[in-house]
Amino acid sequence: MRLVLLGLFSILLGACGGIPLRGTGDLGLVIERASGHVTLVNTSSRQPYARIGGLGDLSHASVVYSRDARYAFVFGRDGGLTKIDLLEARIVKRVMQSGNAIGGSISQDGRIVVAQNYTPGGIKAFDAETLELLSEVPAEYAPGRFSKVVGLADVPGNKFAYALFDGGEIWVSDFSEPKKPVTKRYPAGLQPYDGLVTPDGRHYLAGLFGEDGVALLDLWQPEKGARKILEKYGRGEEKLPVFKMPHLRGWSVAAGRAWLPAIGRHEVLVADAATWKETGRVAVKGQPVFVMASPDGRQIWVNFAFPDNGWVQVIDTLSGQVVQTLQPGKAVLHMEFTPRGEAVWLSARDDNRVVIHDTKSFRNLGSFAADAPSGIFFTSRAARIGF
């Protein structure tokens, strides 16, 4: 019997000879918005390993990953949804699902990919295996009136939470039956511009552009409805011009506090993550766009809108102080931490480079060329709620 097993083992080794096996946990991709390409990257070697074109308009493109972290789903601004195989470095399938899209998400069980759209306003659900359209939820907030959808996030129970910019509401759609979604609506406030879900999947927050404050929905108790938090923020203060709408998706809870970009102000807003009361503000160099916590929650990295978009600042969450100011390149659009946070990758669009920095010493670890890089997305997102 032992000889038989050894023989079978030898046959299997022979059959696999020449086929390199590898995982995908240290892979990712960089969006090259101007040319419609993505560059596939390896965070262990800190180098690209393939480049794929033909993805259309990738301005404001975003990416989610299959739960096995092999496939990337790229949401383009032109409504294109593209499935990419990271191991074979090829497009598996591409569909045009709308005329103007703004990102997407993937369900808790990994079976449903959902795109959020400006035109026509609403969300569409696709089979993650085949990209077959399963169902759609038009964002008709009043008879004949459709809203742009923003802030789409996957939440537990194969549900998706999102906000209606024009409708001033938060909607939660349950895709337990993918072809028969059930949607519940919650008034939120004026012009919610982006949204996020907390790492535990309990709270959905929508930043409000049309008024001061943030709308908060407790997904464990949705029957209580959305309530306003941080509503005194900015009250009585002069409104400042907004050079670029901040993104909430990059934020996270760190050191028991939530760190959020302040609209139009040179500040990062700090709130207690238990009471949702404002506890402080950190003065920073410009108008923050992304306010991103490192995986261990010790640092907050902040990039800025024009004219300060060549700078990045680092806040220590223990002291609440800016501890480092860097100038990594021209027009830094996005940042992404390696899975355990020993390094951060930054896209310097106007330098046509991706720059890598050590998060402890802040020294430059390297860089590589990319054509007007914007979003950077690593496969470690596959296992995170809301990413």
Automatic annotation (TrEMBL):
Highest taxon of source: Bacteria
InterPro entries attached to this UniProt entry: Cyt_cd1_C_sf, Haem_d1_sf, Host-pathogen_enzymatic-act
Protein name as it appears in the record: Cytochrome d1 heme region
Organism: Sulfuritalea hydrogenivorans sk43H
Gene3D superfamilies reported for this sequence: C-terminal (heme d1) domain of cytochrome cd1-nitrite reductase
CDD domains in alphabetical order: 8prop_hemeD1_NirF (cd20778)
